[in-house]
Design brief:
With about 100 residues, this protein is mainly alpha-helical. The protein has one domain. The protein has four helices and no strands. The two termini are about 25 Å apart. The model has no long low-confidence stretch (mean pLDDT about 75).
Length: about 100
């Protein structure tokens, strides 16, 4: 869905690492609660639909050596269902269009 929204392939729309430049950063800061951008999938869709540039830059990451994921199977399935419904029905928040 993110790939469709941005117009090209995004392979990992759930990565927690983002670089957000102005004026999009100020738009997000003004329009959304502080916890909102934890949902990186939806943030990418919102930015792309507002005509801001969204791109993926590959990063080489080391595999996890210890510990467990912070979200389990049920949480992951519910999160996917939520963002799919929101993105498909365009229920997400709107921001000012990019340049």
């Amino acid at each position: 869905m993110v790939s469709r929204a941005v117009g090209y392939t995004i392979t990992d729309s759930t990565s927690g690492f983002r670089i957000i430049c102005e004026p999009l950063l100020s738009e997000f800061a003004h329009e959304f609660p502080v916890y909102y951008l934890g949902d990186t999938f939806e943030a990418a869709v919102i930015a792309a639909r507002a005509k801001y540039g969204v791109m993926e830059i590959p990063a080489n990451l080391a595999p996890r050596l210890a510990g467990n994921s912070s979200s389990g199977l049920v949480h992951s399935i519910l999160a996917i269902a939520k963002v799919t419904l929101i993105a498909t029905l365009r229920l997400h928040r709107k921001i000012k269009m990019g340049y």
